[in-house]
Amino acid sequence: MLNPATDLFLIIDVQNDFCPGGALGVDGGHDIVPLINNLTRRFDNVALTQDWHPAGHSSFASSHEGKSPFEMVELSYGMQNLWPDHCVQGSFGAQFHKDLETDKAQMIIRKGFRGDIDSYSAFFENDQKTRTGLMGFVQERGFKRVFMAGLATDYCVGFSALDGKGLGLDVYVVEDACRGINMGGSLEAMYQQFNEHGVKRVQSVDLTVSG
Ligand code: VGL
Ligand code: ZN
Questions:
Q1: Percent of the chain, pLDDT > 70?
Q2: How far apart, in Å, are the Cα atoms of 89 and each of 27, 56, 97, 198?
């Protein structure tokens, strides 16, 4: 049962580049848009995240000579996956999917905008220290539970869920309203982490509003 006053729906990175045909297209990424729109109508409080990189970002393989997408590289804060150029600020790929209903969103948090740090999580950048500001919003508005959906399950949704839980929130991942990249077992590994840390997995049909 949803509690409209204290629940937040956080929609992660439903952007053209993560949908089929995009630079880092996730299989079936666009299929979740109607489900997410339907969920949006059930919540009073909605926030969006938007992956938002400057050109030449350090997470792009093209920024590292001799490296290809999906390889790893060591950056100042540790190991970083390399990606195709994606979600470049102002580009079509960085725009939300055209059918995503965004009008109700009270907050759009952009992440990955610092050239030298990537950010999967909506709460912390990949150095695990730099905060995005989302927790300030959550705390000031008094949200207790955060329901998450979007792309990709095993990266941005997953790390947002784990960080939210680590910050003391009650976190639910709406499984059927997410799609994963699933690279080298990353999806199973993320589900394992959810189990270990108490991130709950729910289905969108189970989220009902009273009355
Ligand atoms: C994402 C890889 C790189 C995501 C963003 O939204 O899951 N994955 N940037
Ligand atoms: Zn990115």
A1: 100
A2: 23, 11, 15, 34
